[in-house]
């Protein structure tokens, strides 16, 4: 087994946000959940291409001042997460590494093999607990991407608003009215 080229020691306490700044920039996604470090391997090029295409579609429909950011940190109760896309409200501060839930209109995760359970179960629960109004999860289906759209409901849980697939261009209202057409995204 190859030895790391840096000296790594976990803290002798629960992980905190400032600990993330001491980790290597090696392409892995480092997140903190309830004081534990979670490491996800780098996603492949097809994952990033799909995330970029969705980002562009949302960005082109965005009203003035809204921002669509890739992999900005989000503070959640007991930790820090890195969604694939975060839609920031117009009044959100511009020079922060970590977004506050009140500044977020939507978070979006593109599933990959290494993140499936995390994106389906762990992250939505934390985004809901943080009070983020909308969550989208994108899966790669056999015929193209499928978007699962959720809205924060009663009791800090997301309610499914609907799904849309590559043959279903649809008008949505979150976080603003726009038309989404997954057939334009990579398969």
Number of strands: 13
CATH homologous group name: tt1808, chain A
Overall 3D form: globular
- What CATH architecture label applies? Alpha-Beta Complex
Q: Biggest sheet, open or closed, and with what strands and sense?
A: 6 strands, mixed
Number of helices: 2
Run of helices and strands: EEHEEEEEEHEEEEE
The end-to-end span amounts to 36 Å
Structural class computed from helices and strand pairing: alpha+beta
As a percent range, the share of strand residues is 25-35%
Number of domains: 1
What is the C-level CATH assignment? Answer: Alpha Beta
Write the topology of this structure.
Layout (H helix, E strand, L loop, with lengths): L28 E5 L2 E5 L4 H17 L5 E4 L2 E4 L2 E3 L3 E4 L9 E2 L4 E7 L5 H15 L3 E8 L2 E9 L5 E7 L5 E3 L5 E3 L7
Parallel strand pairs: 4-7, 8-9
Antiparallel strand pairs: 1-2, 1-5, 3-6, 4-5, 6-8, 9-10, 10-11, 12-13
What does this entry show, briefly?
With 187 residues, the chain is an alpha+beta fold. The protein is built from two helices and 13 strands, in the order ββαββββββαβββββ. It has a six-stranded mixed sheet with strand order 3-6-8-9-10-11, sandwiched between helices.
Would you write up a description of this structure?
Helix content is 17%, strand content 34%. It has 187 residues and is of the alpha+beta class. It has one domain: tt1808, chain A. It has a six-stranded mixed β-sheet, with helices on both faces. Strands 2-1-5-4-7 form a five-stranded mixed β-sheet, covered by helices on one side. The protein is globular.
